[in-house]
Design goal:
This protein has 266 residues and is mostly helical. It has a domain of 175 residues: MetI-like (MetI-like fold), CATH 1.10.3720.10. Helices cover 79% and strands 0% of the residues. The chain has 13 helices and no strands. The chain is globular and about 70 Å long. The model has no long low-confidence stretch (mean pLDDT 86). This is Carbohydrate ABC transporter permease. It is a multi-pass membrane protein.
Length: 266
């Protein structure tokens, strides 16, 4: 049983870490709501000014389209590949899975330049596909690893019972194994969404059109081209970060459950 002194020490340590994590957020919010650098009133007007000057409506729409495509395609492919690696046995399985692990360990900086020339040869530079397809590939590598761990620890008795009843592998995946895997799938969805939304290097290299710029890339151009003041830059940063925060708060319970569920799996 935890003593009172240990409990107090735990709260002190947790409070210190919480203050350390919240300090940058409070600083940005206070700066965004503070007086403008050029004078004027403080408050929500800074967000309206940053939205109009920085063209964040276009950038957020582009990020939403890219993130939605990458999340949907990556999660579906990860579920199917994780199911194959976790429940089936086939020739070259280990070698192919290690190839997926290489995709997890390989940073995007290492493949950006050769990927650019490959996509340029295919005529895909400065298109929607040049931003989404590389991120799908990177996300599927981790998603396969994540879902494989879940399916390997799934209840074999339920799977065998479904096979005896004549269920196909496709039906077992979508009707038997996937419904209990909701926390793992939601956690994967949230992680892929955050990674895709915050991706900066791939859009920077692959696109030049303003209509294809994502929100983080637009924020960088906003800082360099439109304003050098910290107030509007802070307001723009809050605008770019808000969708991720809202999405996380909406799926927070399932996200934590998925992490705890994954902690006790292989």
């Amino acid at each position: 049983m935890i003593s009172r002194g240990e409990r107090v020490a735990n709260y002190v340590i947790l409070s210190a870490f919480a203050a350390f994590a919240l300090f940058p957020i409070v600083t940005i919010l206070s700066a965004a709501l503070g007086p403008a650098d050029s004078g004027g009133t403080a408050g929500l007007g800074n967000f309206a000014a940053a939205w109009e000057i920085g063209h964040f409506g276009t950038y957020l729409r582009s990020s939403l389209l890219v993130s939605a495509f990458v999340v949907v395609v990556s999660v579906i492919l990860s579920i199917m590949s994780g199911y194959a690696f976790g429940t089936m046995r086939f020739r070259g399985q280990s070698a192919l899975f290690y190839l997926f692990l290489v995709g997890i360990m390989m940073p995007s900086e290492a493949i950006a330049v050769p990927l650019y020339f490959d996509l340029r040869t295919l005529g895909l530079i400065d298109t929607f596909w040049s931003v989404t397809l590389p991120q799908v590939a990177l996300s599927v590598a981790f998603g396969t690893f994540w879902m494989r761990a879940y399916f390997r620890a799934s209840n074999r008795a339920i799977v065998e019972a479904a096979r005896i009843d004549g269920a196909s592998s496709w039906r077992i995946l979508w009707r038997v194994l996937l419904p209990p895997a909701r926390p793992a799938v939601v956690t994967l969805t949230l992680l892929v969404f955050m990674w895709t939304w915050n991706e900066f290097l791939i859009p920077l290299i692959m696109v030049t059109s303003e209509s294809l710029r994502t929100a983080p890339l637009g924020l960088a151009f906003f800082q360099g081209q439109y304003t050098s003041g910290f107030t509007l830059l802070a307001a723009g940063s809050v605008i770019v970060a808000t969708p991720v925060v809202v999405f996380y708060l909406f799926l927070q319970r399932h996200f934590v459950r998925g992490l705890l569920q994954g902690a006790v799996r292989e």
